[in-house]
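Hello,

Our lab assistant flagged a job as stuck in the queue for most of the afternoon. It eventually completed. Since we weren't sure the result was trustworthy after the delay, we are filing this so someone can double-check. Below is the sequence as submitted and the structure that was eventually returned. Let us know if re-running is recommended.
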Amino acid sequence: MEEAAVRVENLVKVYPRGVRALNGLSFTVNEGEIYGLVGPNGAGKTTTLRILATLLRPTGGRASVYGHDVVKESMAVRRLLSYLPEEASAPREMKGVEFVEFIAKLRYRDPRDVARVLEEAARIADLGRDMERKVKTYSKGMKRRLLLATVLAVRPRLAILDEPTSGLDVEQSLRIRQIIKKYSRSLGVTVLLSSHNMLEVERLCDRIGIIIGGRIVEEGAPSELKEKYGAETLEDVFLAVTRGRGRGAPRPQ
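-- returned structure --
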């Protein structure tokens, strides 16, 4: 069986005081696809992304990235992915170009690779001369563009993006979506993203998984889910599922 880019099997995460964030979560992300993990606040999306990024240890179950266990082989996993948290930031006293160079050198030793990352990140971020300014002078949108550009420009095998267009205006959000799709289609970067913007998810993702109560309760291509629920938009599907019409939606305890 061909190894998936991401494989999550019966994942459980219990925080202190018994708060159960994940409750037997299972899903698979195929190589080269864009998979959207969506759900209401508190459903377990960010916990899942942080476990896959090796920043959290699960309480139970298993998760792997290209066959590498995220707990037992965390260093190998980190070499394969880049992670953009929703509340990510860059050092305030660094210039934009200095931050990109710092990240590039963590992944590459060859100066030619570092130079390529710098060039790509500058093009994606579209900050022009502002790349020479310190991050502390950037707006929220400028910081987000810098961070997302850096994540993509290092060309990971897996890009984990939590609310990738947070803080961006409509024009910039559209441009960033096009870039994410290009990197997936042209360069084979697998993308796992979470977003509350259902239009963004519908236009970007090959498949989505709707998570409620720490479990996937519905999954499929946006077009398939719209047909299944007789819905015009993915927002309508999301509302139907979160109101209890999805397959296997957990019952209130």
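-- support follow-up --
The delay was a queue issue, not a problem with the job. The result is valid. The radius of gyration is 18 Å. The beta strands are 6-15, 19-29, 34-38, 60-65, 68-69, 81-84, 158-162, 190-194, 207-212, 215-220.
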